[in-house]
């Protein structure tokens, strides 16, 4: 589409080192940054010459096959990042929040953004599987920043009788204040040793995790991450 092509051309020009550009190339960049430049009816001939000249100079400027692929990869990443930001709603976290009492537990669920998934791990020290699940959730929290990961000791919930050692570790999943899933003794779903990837696969089976966060653009190094 014409709009996409123009956006790509503008991105290619903006990727150039401004200080190294000649005055004529800087003028092309300025013109492309103002695509709605108007011309009078009497200036139709000038407009046609301007457009024709600009296209030829622009072609010479951006048509570099050796650097074109690298620039295209950067452009793809920027488009993907822009799309992701438009589709992402609610706050960002990236860590596991330690809840100290039942009041904080309720607030973490009821006062959260309606589109935010809240995953709460109820645990106790010394219970098999609790430490491994805490470590796994720490890893997943960094990968799924839009998900609010929390943990709280059963003895601090104010309802310790409901969370005896027999049902720990327990994982509760909420969204919009509603309980979506309740997994008791969740470590029994895994092997004796399990890791973040195992918990991730399990939660994905139930559709409880969003799409994985896209990597930040950083310094634009396209050798590390390729976008298909």
UniProtKB/TrEMBL annotation:
Localisation: Cell projection, Cilium, Photoreceptor outer segment; Cytoplasm, Cytosol; Nucleus; Photoreceptor inner segment
GO CC entries: cytosol; nucleus; photoreceptor inner segment; photoreceptor outer segment
Record keywords, A-Z: Cell projection, Cilium, Cytoplasm, Nucleus, Phosphoprotein, Sensory transduction, Vision
Presence of keyword Acetylation: no
Superkingdom of the source species: Eukaryota
GO biological process, one term: regulation of G protein-coupled receptor signaling pathway
Residue ranges of domain Phosducin in the record: 1-221
Keyword tRNA-binding: no
Membership in a protein family: Belongs to the phosducin family.
Descriptive protein name: Phosducin
Organism phylogeny: Eukaryota, Metazoa, Chordata, Craniata, Vertebrata
């Amino acid at each position: 589409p014409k709009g996409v092509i123009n956006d790509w051309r503008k991105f290619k020009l903006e990727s150039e080192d401004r200080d190294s550009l000649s005055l004529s190339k800087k003028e092309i960049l300025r013109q492309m940054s103002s695509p709605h430049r108007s011309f009078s009816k009497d200036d139709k001939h000038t407009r046609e010459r301007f457009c024709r000249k600009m296209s030829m100079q622009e072609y010479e400027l951006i048509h570099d096959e050796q650097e074109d692929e690298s620039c295209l990869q950067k452009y793809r990443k920027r488009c993907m990042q822009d799309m992701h930001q438009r589709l992402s709603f609610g706050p960002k976290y990236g860590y596991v929040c330690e809840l100290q009492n039942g009041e904080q537990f309720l607030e973490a669920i009821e006062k959260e953004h309606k589109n935010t998934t809240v995953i709460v791990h109820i645990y106790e020290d010394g219970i098999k599987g609790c430490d491994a699940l805490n470590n796994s959730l720490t890893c997943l929290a960094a990968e799924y920043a839009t998900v609010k990961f929390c943990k709280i000791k059963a003895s601090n919930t104010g309802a310790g009788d409901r969370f005896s050692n027999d049902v720990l570790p327990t994982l509760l999943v909420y969204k919009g204040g509603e309980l979506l899933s309740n997994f008791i003794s969740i470590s029994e779903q895994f092997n004796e040793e399990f890791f973040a990837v195992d918990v991730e696969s399990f939660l994905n089976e139930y559709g409880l995790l969003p799409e994985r966060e896209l990597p930040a653009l950083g310094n634009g190094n396209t050798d590390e991450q390729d976008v298909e």
